[in-house]
Write a structure and sequence with these properties.
15 helices; Aspartate Aminotransferase, domain 1; binds pyridoxal-5'-phosphate; alpha/beta; seven-stranded mixed beta sheet
């Protein structure tokens, strides 16, 4: 069989056997799918040998680039010892070392602030990190003898994963509405989305009306609410919605005042994406529980952690028969290969001065976004660090969106492919989220291709 026949066969088998996530498979059948075979730095190669710039970090997971020697080596070294053993009743070395490293990292990030994150609970993806956080918060109040705190407060436009608990605190109607009969009841506060303010305010006269709505809910219902769960600073899957300055800090104070826990879902924002190691650092606040996943292993292996304070952890201590145990765990909890990859990835932040080196790239990205903002079908551009969203609109003055069925975001993404760039939009929002290690030159190229794709799509 010739090589091109082999690829053809692969594509046929993909269509025959693989059900892709978040994908209308009927459309997929009509597509000529790209099959990725290799990666290097911020590029991935398809089966025909064509290289593409990985403009969304393989869905927000890659930080230091593909085939990073230090991480490759760490996994190989661990593989020569053991691939997996369970944390249920046993320990393993990489999970111990990584937990210590994560606590040292949060100690450094949140130096001098309270509360202090001190314990690491492992799972294997962002959704499970959130599920663990929700159950931890719920059970915490029971152990404290506080009755009735049985639900949560979250935001419109929130995305916390696809498992049922995470969907219950989600706020993206198109993904979440149809599952409503399966979900637990949770309170929803307006999203601090200044470009599309639900409360009809413009930023000049708002003075955080959305936060006042949050406070109203807390005032009435805090005795039912175990925790507020948020994606700090950037609501990612909701459209890269960047919060106004001060909102997060005020929210932390509200949680203290109304005696509810604060869960920060940093699955997307963690590990440097926003220009700081953790997004909460931008406003000098510490959550009571923090979820991390996507960037943790540099996108090598599925791994997640839920960090908690001693205050929470200690509430679960008791005699065996008191049943205070945290009854939660997964088969691959604390997987040694994944933990070894995470340790190597975290070490690279110091070695390569990743955060410092991001600064000129963030400045470049912001310059290029400003140019793109002038295009007639671009309603809004927003970014924090190297996370950016470009919102396409049908009518700029009225902000009228393109009908979602027109797949405008996808039209731009398909055009960008022709220019050798892979991106995946969120509805009408073009996402820019390259590996943090991207070179200035490649970032320029990424933005050139995206700009050109928007122009071509708008004139067709
Ligand atoms: C992606 C994401 C999740 C879910 O993570 P999975 O690994 O896809 O389950 C949860 N929260 C946020 C903020 C995310 O961006």
């Amino acid at each position: 069989m010739s090589y091109s026949d082999e690829i053809k066969k692969l594509k046929e088998s993909d269509k025959k056997f693989v059900w892709h996530p978040f994908t209308q498979m009927k459309d997929w059948f009509e597509e000529d799918p790209i099959i990725i075979t290799e990666g290097r730095d911020c590029f991935v190669k398809d089966a025909y040998g064509k290289w593409y710039l990985d403009g969304v970090s393989s869905i927000w997971v890659n930080i230091h680039g593909h085939r990073k020697k230090e991480i490759d080596d760490a996994i190989k070294t661990q593989l020569d010892k053991i691939a997996h053993s369970t944390l249920l009743g046993l320990g393993n070395i990489p999970s111990i070392e990584l937990a210590e490293k994560l606590i040292n990292l949060t100690d450094k990030s949140f130096a001098g602030l309270t509360p202090r994150l001190s314990k690491v609970f492992y799972s294997d993806n962002g959704s499970t990190a959130v599920e663990a956080a929700l159950k931890m918060a719920f059970q915490y109040w029971i152990h404290k003898g506080v009755k009735g705190k049985q639900t949560f407060l979250s935001l419109k436009n929130a995305y916390h994963g696809d498992t049922i608990g995470a969907v219950s605190v989600g706020g993206i109607d198109i993904f979440h509405d149809m599952f409503s009969p399966l979900l637990f009841k949770a309170y929803k506060a307006p999203s601090p989305h200044c470009y599309r303010c639900e409360l009809g305010k413009t930023s000049l006269e708002c003075s955080f009306t959305c936060l006042k709505e949050m406070e109203n809910i807390l005032e009435k219902h805090s005795d039912e609410i175990a925790a507020v769960i948020i994606e700090p600073i950037v609501q990612a899957a909701g459209g890269m919605i960047v919060w106004p300055e001060g909102y997060l800090k005020d929210l932390r104070e509200l949680c203290n005042r109304y005696n509810v826990l604060l869960i920060a879902d940093e699955v997307a924002t963690g590990f440097g994406r926003t220009g700081k190691m953790f997004a909460c650092e931008h406003e000098n606040i510490v959550p009571d529980i923090m979820c991390l996943s996507k960037g943790i292993t540099n996108g090598y292996m599925p791994l997640a952690v839920t960090l908690a304070t001693d205050e929470i952890f200690n509430a679960f201590l008791g005699e065996f028969k008191e049943l205070k145990t945290f009854f939660h765990g997964h088969s691959y909890t604390g997987n040694p290969l994944a933990c070894a990859a995470a340790i190597a990835s975290i070490d690279l932040f110091d070695k390569e001065e990743t955060l410092k080196n991001m600064r000129p790239k963030i400045a470049l990205l912001e310059d290029r976004l400003k140019e793109i903002a002038d295009l007639p079908i671009v309603g809004n551009v927003r970014n924090k660090g190297l996370i950016a969203g470009i919102e396409l609109v049908k009518d700029k003055p009225s902000k009228e969106p393109f009908p979602w069925e027109k797949k405008m975001g996808w039209n731009v993404a398909y055009k960008a492919r022709e220019g050798g760039v892979l991106i995946r939009p969120l509805g009408n929002v073009i996402v820019v989220m390259p590996p943090l290690s991207i070179s200035i030159e490649n970032l320029k190229r990424l933005m050139d291709v995206i700009k050109k794709a928007i122009i071509v799509v708008s004139s067709s």
